[in-house]
Structure prediction request, 203 residues.
Amino acid sequence: MTNERGQRRYVEEPVGDPLGRFYTPDPVAELVVRDVLVPMLQAHNVSRPKILEMSVGGGSFVFWIRQYIEGAYVHGNDLDPDAPGLKLCDRTSNVDAARTRWSEGWDVNIGNPPWDPPAPAAPTIDHVGRAIRTAPIGLLVLPWSYGGQPTWSPMFSLEVGFEGVQPINPRPWIAHREAALYRWNAHIERRERREYFQPLVWR
Ligand SMILES: C[S@@+](CC[C@H](N)C(=O)[O-])C[C@H]1O[C@@H](n2cnc3c(N)ncnc32)[C@H](O)[C@@H]1O
Prediction:
């Protein structure tokens, strides 16, 4: 299915696709960029940000970054060399994001990593671990249920800059679990507690 820009959107691949290809709907990505990322950049005086999308997929985040953030530089990566979003990026690569030592100097890591891909693919937690080490601002779409799982608590601790979670309503994919935006922000040095942000209502 293509949208008016000729890009694939609302793709619902069967659950179990080894690459976890379910792309973020445009309206969800727009809300994340406009209502979350742009205010964070403004609050910390980050201009012309260097942004890394480790699994760029359909490219909806990059599309909205281009609309709302002047001078952004975007590196888009996807294991799938045919991922349509690669065409929107300044620089591209096709490596396994969870097993790559990313360079430093990024301002933002944004995206929607593959959720629980079947082995031997790297588990989602490895993608997130890499992502939050690359940039002070991390915005990742993940299952809502991760927030309550003990194995995930190291990712959601104040020590790694975790800021809080924001439900996404309604769920973006019929065939998948409830989603939320998980937010990391290392610009704020001392934080007393994690936040439960108001839901992002996209429809
Ligand atoms: C859930 S989709 C999200 C795509 C995109 N971020 C979006 O919001 O539309 C996950 C993407 O991760 C890619 N992918 C899967 N395994 C990967 C890996 N190990 N490294 C990099 N990309 C991977 C898939 O090809 C797919 O495009």
About this structure: The helical segments are 26-43, 60-68, 124-134. The domain at 26-201 is CATH 3.40.50.150 (Rossmann fold). The two ends are 19 Å apart (CA to CA).
